[in-house]
Amino acid sequence: MDLNFLTIVEAHKGLLAKQFSAEDLVKACQAQIAKTEKLNTFITRTDDLALEQARKVDAKIAAGETIGMLEGIPAGIKDLFNTRGVRTTCASRILENFVPPYESTATRKLLEEGYVLMGKVNLDEFACGTTSEFSFIGPSLNPWNPEYTAGGSSGGSVAGVSAGQFYYSLGTDTGGSIRLPASWSGCVSLKVTYGRVSRFGVTAMASSLDTIGPMARSVEDIAVIMQVIAGHDPLDATTPDVPVPDYSADLKKGVQGLRIGVPKEYFGEGMDPEVNTLVRSAIKEYEKMGAVITEVSLPMTKYGVAIYYVLVPTELSTNLARMDGLRFGRQPEGEVKDLIDYYFKSRGQGFGTEIKRRIMVGTFVSSAGYADAYYKQALKARTLVCQEFENVFKEVDVLMAPVVPMTAFKVGENLNNPLALYMADILTLPANVAGIPSMSLPCGFTSKGMPVGLQIIGPHWSEPLLIQTGYAYEQAMGWKDMHPKF
Ligand code: GLN
Q: Which 8-state DSSP code applies to residue 372?
């Protein structure tokens, strides 16, 4: 049996039936990692820990104890989540030797479930980027064609899931970093409602937009992971005490009568015609299954990139102030004259180009004399985006659109063109600006064999509906069973 491309649910069943052990799963992952090493998935591997965790689960199974759905299932975790005793770098030189003394809430919940950690995986530095090329170890490559990037910022997460190196991953989505790479590398992913999953212990990028979510090989697996990680956390004041629903309960209810809105602004100029065709035929498929399709309009869409790229650098520059070589971060190399020189050198040597660019932009747009023109204006525009979504969800249940207007960028293609990278987020970041959930689901391949994703956006707390909607299409099509060849 090919263990590498099982879903979590299949692997769980196999463990229960004693078809294979948790140790077998880890060894299969390790073999696949060795075979596909060039994808550059991992920043830190935890092979010994993984084997130790797997053996504990095997002992439980042998003793006839019950096991949870994620127990014994190998995962890769974006290297932005603090993992106690395991190096956590945020893909930045400034944290290259940071070993956290505490665990993030999300990974603590996984630990309590008995998960298996294969290692910490690649991302753009502090999750700022679209291709994972801003990582201090370079980009993760696309499993479908390594001339292309896996996408970003959660590049290691999707490369690993799609290539069979582990079964799922947790990432962060501030402007698309879970959904965009999932779309480019052919995985399922969910960006949750702001506040649904605790961000405690995950290095903040832009605190008013950051969300945590899963990437996996099937919609059902997404439901399984959500069941474990969702919920109020006293350590994160932005997680309200909204009851956690049963995410698998409505899985098979279908989409009969579902009202789907297709925002015309999401199919604008510059879109790859093949992406357009594939996404539109996925929406047609929903119509065949009984959904009702209407075109809707979200005119604020064109301001999304501008709003986001004022708010995010502002919040980022504040959040990264603690990386000063004293409170956090490495000490500077070479002679230091005084305290200011110390800061210049620790930050100058520690941060990469994109982070420096954003700190400068963020400091500028929020500084006295400019805050009214930029930062405060962006906040006002943000309110309009929220209202626009609220209004459209009075008419439709979900929205469907592409995740990204184009397929994966070639390695290096836009490395020196930040605007092109920012523009790729145009369809993902509105959901972050409004704090609403959104799923990315494989919906086919281009003539060059590159994956394309369908985006399904819903109102606040509609994750169960997104899961139900995604599942219907996934079952009707065969995309889930396509895997890259090595
Ligand atoms: N591409 C976006 C950015 O660079 C996404 C970031 C994210 O979601 N973490 O800001």
A: T
